[in-house]
Amino acid sequence: MTVSEFYRFMCEKIPLDYRLDNDFDGMSCCPDPGREVTRVLCCLDATPEMVAEAEEEDCQVILTHHPMLYGGIRDVLAGDYRGERLVRLIKSGISVMSFHTRLDGVPGGVSDTLAGLIGVGNTRPICEKGIARLGVLDRETDAREFAGRIKEVLGAPFVEYADAGRPIRTVAVGGGSVNSFLRDALAEGADAFVGGEIGFHNMTDLPACGLSVFAAGHFYTENPVCARLFELTAEAGLLPVVAFSNSVGAV
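Request: output the structure for the sequence above.
Response:
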């Protein structure tokens, strides 16, 4: 299977229809679309450390959730952190392909993976392109207990939460930054929203509207989807390698 064939395979599994219009996902770097692919590095971000690991593992493709060139790029210059990375990838013949908002919304993607981990079942899509999911817990809980569950299953160093003061059963979920979707969840009757990043004013305002909110960290809510990228790579008949790409710590 070549790089271009693998990209077409991934696009069949994670269709463009799920991508938001302003997104930058897709093929970020492709030195040789005809290069044969045997090994694929699956990770959240194509950081310099992940590029080095792909070289060490003899991977021809880095498959990520976050676009490497998010926001676009005007030039490729030595000394610039993104320029240096692109030059290294091209010299090594390594392609980078990313599936961002379409992996959020596709069935089995970021939101479904997160929901399953924290015990939210019977989910259905809400918001634009279905990026967030709404479902129910197997049993009613309170905010403190639920925050502890989220922290434990995601391995997050902490979970920020704001308690609306009512039992939680119907829950909306979304990985990463979810500020754009909070009002949708409220309108759909959610008791709580679990996301990666939630702005301070939403944390303080929404509990008064009856919505408890939980922020478990951008990385911790999205990194579990790398297991899905691993599965799809194996389904394509290639050897997947999963790598830990978080460079942000907490004390």
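Residues 81-92 form the longest helix (12 residues).
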